[in-house]
Amino acid sequence: MNPSTELGTEVLLPRSKEEGDDFVADFATMSGFGATEAGGVERQAATAADAQTRRWLAQWLRERGFRVKRDRIGNLFGLLELIPGAPYVLVGSHLDSQPRGGRYDGAYGVLAAAHAVDRIRRHYQSNGVSPSVNLAVVNWFNEEGSRFKPSMMGSAVYTGKLDLETALNTTDASGTTVREALSVIGELGEEDVFGTSLAPAAYVEIHIEQGKILDKQGVDIGLVTSTWAANKYEISVHGAQAHTGSTEMADRQDALYGAALAVAAVRELADRYDDRLHTSCGQLTVYPNSPVVVAREVQMHLDLRSPDDSILAEADEILRRQFAKIEVKANVQIEKRHAHTWAANFYQKEGVELARAAVNDLGLSNVEIRTRAGHDSTNMKEIVPSIMLFIPSVDGISHSELEYTHDHDLCNGVDLTAEILLRLTHGHLAEQRAQ
Amino acid sequence: MNPSTELGTEVLLPRSKEEGDDFVADFATMSGFGATEAGGVERQAATAADAQTRRWLAQWLRERGFRVKRDRIGNLFGLLELIPGAPYVLVGSHLDSQPRGGRYDGAYGVLAAAHAVDRIRRHYQSNGVSPSVNLAVVNWFNEEGSRFKPSMMGSAVYTGKLDLETALNTTDASGTTVREALSVIGELGEEDVFGTSLAPAAYVEIHIEQGKILDKQGVDIGLVTSTWAANKYEISVHGAQAHTGSTEMADRQDALYGAALAVAAVRELADRYDDRLHTSCGQLTVYPNSPVVVAREVQMHLDLRSPDDSILAEADEILRRQFAKIEVKANVQIEKRHAHTWAANFYQKEGVELARAAVNDLGLSNVEIRTRAGHDSTNMKEIVPSIMLFIPSVDGISHSELEYTHDHDLCNGVDLTAEILLRLTHGHLAEQRAQ
Question: Do A249 and B263 touch (CB under 8 A)?
């Protein structure tokens, strides 16, 4: 049964050439904030470049009649009230980037949300129909987690998974807290935007795929059905500081040697599971990090992901045994702390079906995808029905200045987001759930 | 034939209790500059703590009638002119430390030199005999090489092994040049102190052993006969930045995985040579170093040392082959640059014999040692006869806050330095060489 026919489909007017051009032009302007020479962006959370991008978005929203608000963890909202007192459908992603990251990751989803909601605004202005919910564009604070850990911080606080004070007191490598960093750029809000009166009804997020399924298969849209599970660990390797030249080899307690064995073990663990387990160490810091000093300590961050929770549990046990062997071999102590975790989890089926109907009605091709990357929707789907959409990314390149998505795919994504929002404002999701 | 009897030995007056107490007190004062909680010091080259220590030493020297000078690479000299126009015997070491280093490494040798020369000054004031050379205490700039590479920078420029401009333009991790750092602390001198008129005649350096031969065997003094050879390499591992979660394992070009395999290979190379090869990686920096980003690049510094040049050459060839395999396994490129090297090399035999005679006449026990660590004397012995002496270090701990040497060993070292300097001012070394 095709819900779009059963529920009575309303498709927005086809995108005008001007609407497409505006989006591409706005995206180019936005990509100038924190732009790197190699075509990427460098705007980690609450840096000057992040602040520039946020101010530009707020201005864009205000100019179109949105009410702009910031909550106490620096999430930025652009509210479009269509029906006073009705709940809000949130739509957005994040403007912050990895160090030397790509211009599409996150930022595309925020701008697509803004353009889509603005299209809905113009639609309602011109046809007078009554929607059943309000809309809000959202830019979640610190999705990337490179400067402040954990990642997806803003949505975690919003959804109650992370304590506000804990988040605000988190420090970056130089000791600056989230509270200080947000205050400095003037982005620390004072209210619980959606705490009581403005209840969220649903969430929509569109993002580049960060994988190459769509690009390889030549498909327009990925309908995200579930997430991979992830385990993240903070590891400390403890050795003893010594002279690289004079200290006898047998006496060394070389923290970096221990860490190197651990990095190799973690990577090679993935070989057992034929791409059903992704493992990585991307962050490793050596103390004191002098060329002639055997390291006394290494801090590192491990990232393990799988579509299957039981694989993660098994990998955890294998690592425990391997780390015990490394401790003996390198004469070090390895301390392993669980930093952050999320289970393999499904997006609400009614959301996937609503999105599939909209994709079909727009004449776009689609495929279901399980996302290996975390997104703010991973948090949001715990509290409200959430729809996660992907557009293609050339060669699936991600967290890299080389990230690239074609303009026609960017515009398809805006169209689809607008179409889904339109259906949500008509209560389609509620009807779907009742089926 | 015992040179001390043949040449007519003059032993200084036995150390008074006051002289010993003064040394220990001065050493404690000096160890307060940049002191760390765990009993070490943190005073990397041309930092504020290094500057404090240098100013304190300069003041100490001036108060006792030394003329204080700085050369153009920030070496600090305290000149004691006994015979106008005669060449100088230099004696000293370095005041800079590793990050969280020990209080004895280098600093002891500078203060021992100052106290020894001052004792000679008082000796000549009271007995009126004419010496044949002048004496100068020296604090070599940046021996440690942790902030600015290479190590032994000041003595390398002084001896013409390193170009002055190259050294001054060397930057630390934050981009500050040696020239700027020395200017900021007011320690950039303007003259070639020993360029023409003040020619050096010999060099003496005393240092803690940084090994445990003396401590284990209960011997008072190490007579250093030669250095181990060292090869130091700068390594860049080039990969491609990517997402730790979403990127398929087979597509990864993980620079940190490649670096980890290299660190392990370098360490395990040493196992083939039964402590005749010391290998280490103490410095490793990851870019961009984010927990959810596969590293695009790793920079690291390798340190290989051996008493045997041919072992180093063989190790170099083995590493070349292993790195080629790692490049394939980790899908990365490894770039290896020779950063710094010194061959296994002998101290002048006449200097060792002069020192042995002085040690014997003072009733101290001794053993010959080949040093595995580099010292400024490694540079100085290329241009003048040089004497290198070790005192015991408990458990041989080095480049660590836990470094410790007993006060009686510190005082023995000052006595020996003074005794050797006295013989040098009497021309003993020249006579020894003529034998």
Answer: no
Q: Taking a C-beta distance cutoff of 8 angstroms, is the pair A246, B210 a contact?
A: yes
Residue A8 to residue B365: CA distance in whole angstroms:
101
Q: Are B434 and B7 in contact (CB under 8 A)?
A: no
User: Strand ranges (DSSP E) for B215-354?
Assistant: 221-227, 229-238, 242-243, 278-287, 293-294, 297-306, 333-342, 345-346
Query: How far is it, in rounded angstroms, from Cα A41 to Cα A107?
Result: 10
pLDDT of residue B431: 54
- The pLDDT, as a whole number, for residue A339 is 84
DSSP helix, strand, coil percent of chain A (3-state; round to 5): 40, 25, 40
CA distance B418 to chain A (A): 27
For residue A262, report the phi and psi dihedrals to the nearest 5 degrees.
-65, -45
Note whether B326 and B259 are within 8 A (CB).
no
User: For chain B, which domains are there?
Assistant: 3-228+344-434 (3.40.630.10), 229-342 (3.30.70.360)
Alpha carbon distances (Å) from A415 to A119, A312, B41 = 9, 37, 63
Residue type, B136: A
Each residue's pLDDT tens digit, B371-416 = 988 899 999 999 999 999 999 999 999 999 999 999 999 999 999 9
How many contiguous H segments (helices) and E segments (strands) does chain B have?
14, 15
Q: What does each C-alpha distance from A278 to A128, A310, B47 come to in angstroms? A: 50, 14, 43
0.90 exceeded by pTM? no
Task: State the pLDDT confidence band at A129, using cuts at 50, 70 and 90.
Answer: confident
Kind of pairing, strands A229-238 and A297-306? Answer: antiparallel
Task: Establish whether the linkage from the previous residue to B288 is cis, with ω within 30° of 0.
Answer: yes
Burial call B23-41: b when 16+ CB within 10 Å, e when fewer: beebbeebbebbbbeeebb
CA B247 to chain A, closest CA, distance in angstroms equals: 6
The percentage of chain B sitting over the pLDDT mark of 70, rounded to a whole number, equals 95
Q: Chain B, 4-63: which have a CB under 8 Å from a chain A CB?
A: none
Sequence letter at residue B75: N
Q: In A265-408, at which residue ranges do the beta strands (DSSP E only) sit?
A: 278-287, 293-294, 297-306, 333-342, 345-346, 366-371, 386-391
Which residues in chain A touch residue B230, judged by CB atoms under 8 angstroms apart? Answer: 245
Amino acid identity of A253? Q
Local confidence band at B204 (pLDDT 50, 70, 90 cut-offs): very high
From chain A, the residues in CB contact with B145 under 8 A are 290-292
Closest CA to A205 of A129, A152, A278: A152
Residue A399: list chain B partners with CB under 8 A: 241-244, 290, 292-294
Question: How far apart are alpha carbons A198 and A221 in whole angstroms?
Answer: 31
Asked whether A268 and B261 are in contact (CB, 8 A), the reply is no
What are the residues facing B301 on neighbouring strands? B234, B283
Q: Give the length of chain A.
A: 435
Nearest chain B Cα distance for residue A138, angstroms: 23
Pairing of strands A366-371, A221-227: parallel
Output Rg (C-alpha) for chain B, integer angstroms: 23
Q: Does ipTM surpass 0.90 in this model?
A: no
- Sign of the C-alpha dihedral, residues B259, B264, B267, B269? negative
CA dist list (Å): A250 to A330, B307, B417: 10, 17, 33
- Cis status, amide bond into A291, omega within 30 of 0: no
The two tokens of residue A52 are 């520039």
Give tens-digit pLDDT for A35-75. Answer: 999 999 999 999 999 999 999 999 999 999 999 999 999 99
CA separation, residue B135 to residues A177, A331, B23 (Å): 54, 47, 19
Residue type at A10? E
A433 alpha-carbon distance from chain centroid: 26
The reported pLDDT for the residue numbered A196 is: 53
